[in-house]
Structure formats: C-alpha cells, structure tokens
Amino acid sequence: MGLLTDKPDRFPPPASTKTKRFVRKGIPPDWRGAAWFYYAGGPAILAEYSGVYDELLTKQVSAVDAEAIERDLHRTFPDNIKFKPNNLSTNTDSSRSSNQTTSETASSGGEDGEPRMISSLRRVLRAFAIQNPLIGYCQSLNFLAGLLLLFLETEEQAFWLLNVITRVYLPGTHAMSLEGSKVDLGVLMGAIRESMPAVWAKIGD
C-alpha cells in the first residue's frame, strides 16, 4: 500500500480500487488497529474531543453498570494471554494514563495485581457507560472493547472507536430497548422467508 513505516497514521483514500483490493485481502495485523481508527474518522474525533476520555474517567459510573461490567471483565477472551491472570507482574501500580499503549498495558499488573488489559477494559467500559446513558453497559460490549484494546495503541482510541461502532455502524443494537437488534432480526427473518421457504416453514412450526 506504499506505507513506508512500521506505525502508519495515514492511509490511502478508502474509495480507491487499490485500497479496497488490499483491505479485502486482509490488513496486516500490525497495521489493523491504525487502519480501523483512521478510516472510522478517529483522528478528527480525537482532535475535536481532546481530554473528554480522561474527564469521563473521573466520573462515577452507575452501580448497575459497574456491577455488570465487573461480571463480564474476566469472561472477555479468557484464553488470550493478555487477559489471563497468569500474565501478571509484581508491579501493581494502577496509575496508567489513557495514552499508555496496550503492549505496556499487558506487560504489568493493574488494579490489585490484575492484568493491565483487564484494568484498561474496565476503564473503557465505564467511560463508555457514562458517555452513553441510553446504552450504559450491554453484554458483548466487553468483547468489542477488548478486541479494540488488542489492536489499538491507547485506551482513548479504543473508547472512541467503540463509540463509532455503536453509534454509526450498529445504531440501536446495544440500546436498552435493543431496537437495532430487533430490526436486524426482522430483516433476517424476512430474508429467510423469501430465499429459504423450507427453512422458514420449520421456523414457523
């Protein structure tokens, strides 16, 4: 793609045929997070809302959301080494800033000696719940946020990309009413009814 750097922060125009071809073949893992963030408009969001994530971290999340988040933290990618408790370090300093990279996050312990990645995940999910009161915390957000933390360089980037995913690409899917999920399910059922009548007949039974 002509990116002569190990950590690109700019990519070719998304509409170009060459870009589409390379993306469909698969973005290299080392570039994947940067590409996601760039094409989702992340740099512009960071510039416009600088400091918002850090401010959210100083606020108190609701007890309901806090409890649900804690319940799901250790269910997130339990087989991934960066989320495993046995990846702990003796360093239990939890003063990691939102600008620390996820590689640094995973290399040492977080709150009470837990993996840094779990501490980062907690902060991102709490900040998201505060920022989006109509969603709060919804199951599966832990996996989305966890995946973003694995590929992006900072918690702040993961936080904003999670906002883009839930607001732009999957609007309503994680809302308390699950409106988006119901719409998607309705579309799926309609497609099955039209294209797979035999399967639809079984569902109807």
Automatic annotation (TrEMBL):
Residues 1-21, 84-115 are annotated as: Disordered. SMART domains: TBC (SM00164). GO terms for molecular function: GTPase activator activity; small GTPase binding. Residues 26-205 form the Rab-GAP TBC domain. Residues 86-108 have a biased composition (Polar residues). It holds the Pfam family RabGAP-TBC. Residues 1-10 have a biased composition (Basic and acidic residues). Gene3D superfamilies: putative rabgap domain of human tbc1 domain family member 14 like domains (1.10.8.270). InterPro entries: Rab-GAP-TBC_dom, Rab-GAP_TBC_sf, Rab_GAP_TBC_domain. This is Rab-GAP TBC domain-containing protein. It comes from Verticillium longisporum.
